[in-house]
Amino acid sequence: MSQRKSPRNDAIFHISTGRDKAGLDVKYIDSLKGRGVFTMMHFTKGEFVLEYRGELINFLESNRRHRIYHNNMKGFIFSFIWHGKLWTIDAERDDGTLGRLVNDEHINPNCKMKRIIVEGKPHLCLFALRDITPGEEVTYHYGYADCPWRSKVRMLLLVAILDK
């Protein structure tokens, strides 16, 4: 009988192989959200779900790219502090992995982003905040309040209420 990997070791394994975990699928949601990642199997609280992969770049390069990217591409940039400096994972280039497609949910996310260091390099990984059932969309809180799609959702809800 094989021993089950710890969530951290599971993350390190998937980081090392460069592959997403089985049991995840991409589906189109709507024109506001676009695509999202959905579970096809049960994930338990604390379990590694997937890695947000992309190119690790420094603050200056991140600013340069932020100025030249079309607004749609700016959603694939994830910045974080590491060793007292601002770093960015740029996932603009679609490499076929799913982390870049996980959507924001600021009220009730089912995952949390954590930094894992492998061979001296930071990797951003999502871990389940609670049990996630098959068919659920994988979500996490992006960490900032001024997401443009939240304003659009509020506006659409307001229009729907006023139309009644």
TrEMBL record:
GO terms, molecular function: histone H4K20 methyltransferase activity
GO cellular component terms, semicolon-separated: nucleus; polytene chromosome
Any one GO BP annotation for this protein: regulation of transcription by RNA polymerase II
InterPro entries documented for this protein: KMT5A, SET_dom, SET_dom_sf
Top-level division of the source organism's lineage: Eukaryota
All copies of domain SET, residue ranges: 22-143
Protein name: SET domain-containing protein
Protein source organism: Ameiurus melas (Black bullhead)
